[in-house]
Design a protein that fits this description.
Layout: H1 2-14, E1 19-24, E2 27-32, E3 40-46, E4 53-59, E5 62-69, H2 71-85, H3 91-102, H4 106-116, E6 122-124, E7 132-137, E8 140-145, E9 148-154, H5 156-183, H6 190-198
Parallel strand pairs: 6-7
Antiparallel strand pairs: 1-2, 2-3, 3-4, 4-5, 7-8, 8-9
Helix pairs in contact: 1-2, 2-6, 3-4, 3-5, 5-6
């Protein structure tokens, strides 16, 4: 019965025809049908503690416990990890950013970022732990989120491309968080979900 609930909750939240949800022995795994299974997948397994579930992010031989939580929280975290695993970026916008950056037209890069993203997504020149922050580091660039480096001391071209990519990721997870809030009564804060997705 619990497995059926998990499957239904994932299907509702993810709404992804390419998501494979399999019940194998004592666990449920999620992966994209285009990915290689079992090398990369998300796993949920009943923990040894009453009414708790472990959520694992699995990449080949690296199996990382992300959270041990109640069923609803486990579903949310597993769905976020699945979204992270299947993330596809907008290559046309990324190409525009690369072209501007390679020509040292960094003002054009900033104009594009401001056009494509709301200002609750990014911070330029000042670190804001709730936003993707791009910071000058002498002649190079740092990009940070949640107080942690995404990249440190990279070229301006690389830094601005990474900045764009992670702005897009943060926007995507904000939209997914709205869907989570619409479908679940949860007290999980956005920044907790964003850190799982971004870092």
């Amino acid at each position: 019965m619990e497995e059926l609930r998990l499957n239904n909750e994932f299907e509702l939240l993810l709404n992804d025809k390419e998501c494979v949800i399999e019940n194998i022995r004592d666990k449920i795994i999620l992966y994209n049908c285009k990915q290689i299974y079992p090398e990369n997948h998300i796993e949920i397994k009943k923990a040894n503690v009453n009414n708790k579930y472990d959520v694992f992010d699995v990449h080949r031989d690296d199996k990382r416990l992300v959270i041990e939580a109640d069923i609803e929280t486990a579903i949310i975290y597993a769905a976020v990890l699945y979204k992270k695993a299947i993330y596809v970026r907008d290559e046309s916008k990324r190409k525009n950013i690369r072209n501007y950056a390679e020509k040292n037209k960094f003002d054009e890069v900033i104009c594009s970022i401001r056009l494509w993203f709301s200002d609750d997504i990014y911070s330029i020149g000042i670190e804001d732990i709730k936003k993707i922050s791009i910071l000058n580091n002498n002649e190079n660039i740092d990009v940070k989120f949640g107080g942690k480096y995404i990249v440190k001391n990279v070229s301006k071209t690389s830094g601005y491309i990474v900045f764009y990519n992670y702005c897009e990721r943060l926007r995507n997870i904000k939209l997914f968080y709205e869907k989570i809030k619409a479908n679940f009564k949860t007290d999980i804060e956005f920044h907790e979900i964003a850190k799982v997705y971004i870092l």
